[in-house]
Amino acid sequence: MPLIRAFGPNEFWIIVLAAQWTIALSVIAFAGGGLGGLFIALARVSDAKWPRRIATWFIRLFQGTPLLMQLFLVFFGLNIFGLGINPWFAAAIAFTLHASAFLGEIWRGCIEAVPPGQREAATALGLRYFNRMRYIILPQASKIAVAPTVGFLVQLIKGTSLAAIIGFTELTRQGQIINNATFSPFLVFSTVAAVYFVLCWPLSLLAGRMEKKFSRATTR
Amino acid sequence: MYKFNFEPVIAGLDKLLYGAVLTIQLSVAAMILGLIVSIVCAAAKTSNVAPLRWVINAYIEIIRNTPFLVQIFFIFFGLPSLGLRLTPNGAALLALVINFGAYGTEIIRAGIESIQKGQMEAGTALGLSKLQIFRYIVMKPALRTVYPSLTSQFIYLMLTSSVVSAISADDLAAAGNDLQSATFASFEVYIVVTLIYLAMSVGFSLIFSAIEKAAFKYPLSR
Q1: pTM of the predicted model as reported, rounded to 2 decimal places
Q2: Of the four listed, A118, A122, A147, B25, which is most buried by Cβ atoms within 10 Å?
Q3: Is B187's Cβ below 8 Å from some Cβ in A?
């Protein structure tokens, strides 16, 4: 068997199929980050001082440091706490925290964009915090939030490529592995880029279209 | 229980700080060159030649919808087969410029579009010279419009530049990797490296907002 094999349809499909791990990681991070982000956003707009402060610093920390370093810290940090070196686990936790901070900040903006009169009216009607959020504020905020949230999902999918650096075999890492075997980097990384493009472009278009539709609806 | 050991990190702090200087140099160089690319592309986007507009749009969409790590792998590993062989540092700079250019084009275009033709006509009617019109009516408001997005894009660029360590270009993250493999104090090294990045991004955003307050206050002062 030759040491370097050719880049054929087989190799192409191995790369394309590796997208499932990119998608899986993105879905986990998006679901976890959605939950965490809602929590952060609510803490960020809370009337209590400490939740607000902690949420502000959490967001600042994740927006002010490179995603790669966040990934490294979780990866090596888990080892310190005796949880062993596990790229899957580390990547899932790191991207969940990252997404929580970014979605928290995006959704904070959306909650604050709901006119203050809505909150005052709800309070006047006797609704307490939970019901006010559940029935009045969040349904209106979520409409504003859809477009930027889809936009962030694109960021997140692209970001998961960094998991390749800690040895998690997703799309980019699979590309590196195939490149080491075939040594045709031009074809391999074009294919990898094309798969990411196919995943991200429709979402970008969707986000752009929703943003336009929304701004038309609100400028009337 | 794990015992934190920051001694080797403190011993290697000079290397990390030198890495931080390299990161700033790389980011500033990429920003300046990327801005030139952005201005050219923004001008080309408004051109009457349709194929030119398609090429620019394709460039923007491709860069914005693929990961930076893949872009840099493509440039560093893929381009040599087309005869363009780059050093890791060269590939890092090229990748950052290409990446920034795609985001910068949209920002610059928004700045250009923010100036309405009537404002320039009003300037002429007030008897301002061409240079005065350009300086006070076109340049200053356009800069003020793009300034916040441009500066936050710079900080984003600086944070993204950590990825160039993956092709072992010289920067702060790479200095961290070197120190990590020499000392095995992985967690401690990356905590310090992360804090340096945080200090840089907080520092830059403070400087940028101070400049914004001084340069773009209302009403426009001379």
Answers
A1: 0.91
A2: A147
A3: yes
